[in-house]
User: What shape does this take?
Amino acid sequence: MSFFAILFSYAFLTGSCTESPSQHINMTETKIPAGLKTDTATFGTGCFWCTEAIFQELKGVLKVTSGYSGGTVANPSYEEVCTGTTGHAECLQVIYDPSVITYDELLEVFWESHDPTTLNRQGNDVGTQYRSAIFYHDAAQKQKAEHYKEELSKSGAYNKPIVTEITPFTKFYPAEDYHQNYYNTHGSQPYCSFVIRPKVEKFEKVFKDKLKKKN
Assistant: This one.
């Protein structure tokens, strides 16, 4: 699917992630082959529980880590970030194989997986920690992010201005273990069943040609 196909097929996958989990579950580390050339993308799309499950399904994506970026406090906790006083956004750090999936394609998924027109908000989640953000790692990522944002704005695909923040990457802090791989670990919980699963299913229909093969 080409990038501009989202101008005709986009369906926002928004919702709320206000539920607070009580379990503490260790995430299984993804093994990346030694010597493989990888790249990194960092995106803020609102609650990381929802979009983590989406990026994990993409061919070429090797690891997705939920965490915090864009703030001023070192090693913030989830509770601190939720106050909105640390300046961090809930983010995904995506390590990928650029020979399989490109940054352009990751941007397609970024724009499609959340609403970039709501300032400091996604669905019922309100606060600067839920802002739409692209933290670019180099000049090429900055150029692509700004280009696609401009093209989408000109296209009229959205009836409101795109408010996505495009800013240099500085530091990423992984979130607590219980946030990692959340949907795959807690799939039977009502929140996952009624909020995250519909978003994942919509995504799978739009990006079916980019998905990993399921066992």
Q: What stands out?
A: Confidence is low (pLDDT under 50) at residues 1-15, 19-29. The helical segments are 6-9, 48-55, 78-82, 103-112, 139-155, 182-185, 190-206. The CA atoms of residues 120 and 131 lie 4 Å apart.
